[in-house]
Write a structure and sequence with these properties.
This protein is of the alpha+beta class. The protein has eleven helices and 14 strands. A seven-stranded mixed beta sheet has the order 1-2-3-4-5-14-6. A seven-stranded mixed beta sheet has the order 8-9-10-11-12-7-13.
């Protein structure tokens, strides 16, 4: 619990104000934020320092005595609300040939600019109370900051009960591209293949792995250093540029920041063919969960050698040997995850226009403008219905 904090009386309300980065040092609550998550308060400082396309701010959530009990990050950007629809947005593309800013809105996004978001809570401060305070104040803050749209960005589905207040306040909930999770409570990767996969899927994985058996590919677990960042960054860009759907574009400073400030959470795996780096995977850990965050490949060899399966085999095997029980992965590249028996791990968007009439239109359009609706692989997962 933050020093001097006390449980919040049921009848007490919270107030929400906007502060900047320099004010964080004055509030002991900040260093306690997200302490139970792999991406704690340090992560938000790293992304503000390294991903500079956004205007970062923070909501200070205070009790009636004026004590700041929690601090919720947010950022401002110009958002294309149809981003990711691809061919479904052909009509919009024609309209934008004459009106370039059609359906591009100044947006206040609550959460994390590089990954899923979490609600800022502290001991004695219920999640529902924080959610209620934000739901009642975000539209007013958005107007004062010149934003037309408010988004609670990519919050895990376990917040749905606490976030009911957002829907009552006029927000629409819809799925973002989900993460995935895999139960890895097995003795080894081979044991996982034998027990968790069908015969057809097992043969397919082993056939893909066979492509690399005659070459000397070696995995190494290492620290993030300046020299390694220079090597891994082109491989990261290879994957980023091949994707038809883009999340945030990372920078070298982002990777350096992780290596310098979050060594306790970060695991960097590299694969070399001879002395040449051909793949990497930056992972994070929290409790018994092992997260695959960012991956990169040298496509001169990656496709022929099926390096994706080499990476998956090696990191799952490592995670099992080190006692992790769940393997979790960021969104996209769903086809191999489907065949490896991943489950979808839903994350939600809560969206509201600051003006009532446009918000009515947005509520009706929301189910049709989410990219998750148009991904054919997602619909093949057994728990696809859970993302809605």
């Amino acid at each position: 619990m933050v020093e001097g904090a006390a449980p919040l009386p049921r009848e007490e309300t919270l107030s929400v104000s906007v502060i900047g980065r320099t004010a964080l040092a004055a509030h002991p609550a900040w260093t306690a934020m997200f302490a139970g998550e792999r991406k704690d308060h340090r992560y938000y400082e790293i992304i503000e320092d390294s991903l500079r396309d956004y205007n970062y701010r923070y909501f200070a959530i205070s009790d009636a005595a004026g004590r700041v009990r929690a601090i919720q990050p947010f950022f401002l950007l110009d958002q294309d609300i149809l981003e990711g629809l691809g061919s479904e947005a052909r009509l919009v593309s024609r309209i934008r040939s004459r009106y370039p800013r059609f359906l591009k809105l100044r947006t206040l996004m609550v959460g994390c600019s590089a990954g899923e978001g979490h609600l800022a809570t502290a001991d004695g401060l219920p999640a529902a109370a924080v959610a209620q305070a934000l739901a009642g104040s975000l539209v007013g803050h958005a107007r004062s900051l010149g934003a037309h749209l408010v988004v609670m960005k990519e919050f895990p589905a376990h917040y749905r009960e606490a976030f009911g207040c957002f829907e009552r306040a006029g927000f629409s909930r819809g799925p973002s591209m989900p993460m995935t999770k895999l139960d890895i409570r097995y003795d080894s990767f081979d044991h996982f293949l034998d027990k968790a996969l069908s015969g057809k899927a097992r043969r397919n994985v082993r056939r893909n792995l066979k492509a690399s058996t005659d070459v000397d590919i070696r995995m190494e677990l290492t620290d993030v250093t300046d020299s390694l960042v220079d090597e891994i960054f082109p491989l990261y860009l290879n994957v980023f540029n091949r994707s038809s759907f883009h999340f945030e574009k990372l920078t070298k400073d982002y990777f350096r920041g992780l290596g310098a400030r979050m060594k306790d959470k970060i695991r960097l795996f590299t694969w070399r063919l001879g002395g040449r780096l051909v793949a990497f995977n930056i992972c994070m850990v929290e409790g018994d969960e092992f997260f695959s965050e960012y991956i990169g490949f040298d496509y001169a060899v990656a496709l022929d050698l099926h390096l994706y399966f080499v990476v998956v085999r090696d990191i799952i095997d490592w995670a099992i040997r080190h006692g992790y029980r769940w393997f979790r992965s960021s969104g996209l590249n769903y086809d191999p995850k489907l065949h490896l028996r991943h489950e979808l791990d839903p994350i939600d968007l809560y969206v509201r226009h600051v003006s009532p009439l446009p918000n009515m239109v947005l509520k009706r359009a929301m189910p049709f403008i989410t990219p998750a609706r148009y991904d054919p692989i997602l619909k093949q997962f057994a728990n696809y219905h859970e993302i809605w």
